[in-house]
Amino acid sequence: MSAEALISEADFKLSMRHLAGAVSVITVGDGEDRTGFTATSVSSFSAERPSVIVSVSRASSSWPVLQRHGCFCVNVLAADQQTVAQSFAGLDGRKGAERYGNAGWYRLRTGAAVLEKALAVLDCRLEAAFHHHSHAILIGHICAIQIRESIGPLLYWRGSYHHLPAEAECSGLDEPVGQ
User: Fold this and answer.
1) Cα–Cα distance, 157 to 23 (Å, whole number)
2) Which of 45, 54, 67, 79 is deepest in the core (most CB within 10 A)?
3) Are strands 21-22 and 154-157 parallel, antiparallel or unpaired?
4) Listed residue (53, 35, 22) closest to 152, CA to CA
């Protein structure tokens, strides 16, 4: 029996809960043809041609909308935006355009929805999508960026949300560890 066969889906999910991650809302579409999802699977890809990687389930309602519109916005959530994360995760029962109801939104270059007062915003054009098992790995070319520095991030760790204070409020985090 291979080592791959010994890893259960439940064990894998439990191990991934130990990775603390920034919480982002990925917005796609326009008007009534808009939706989005909560993600902790956002990563930088290239600074040479500024781009990010995002993973999305191809069973998600966001996947066909993303394919139609060809752009998305990564809204990195601030510590005070947990209700937005829960809405886009579907925890309050909202779907599609209904998920946008509990926050203010505007647009940048691509036309994807930008969350007011997000910690950081990465407005992206879809450059490539690679299918692997149940998910698509998206590469988004960043067309516009906005940053808000006065508040800390919303984090997800061990199955719940956590807040990290803004850098100016942190003590003991200024020095690199192990140098």
Assistant:
1) 10
2) 54
3) antiparallel
4) 22
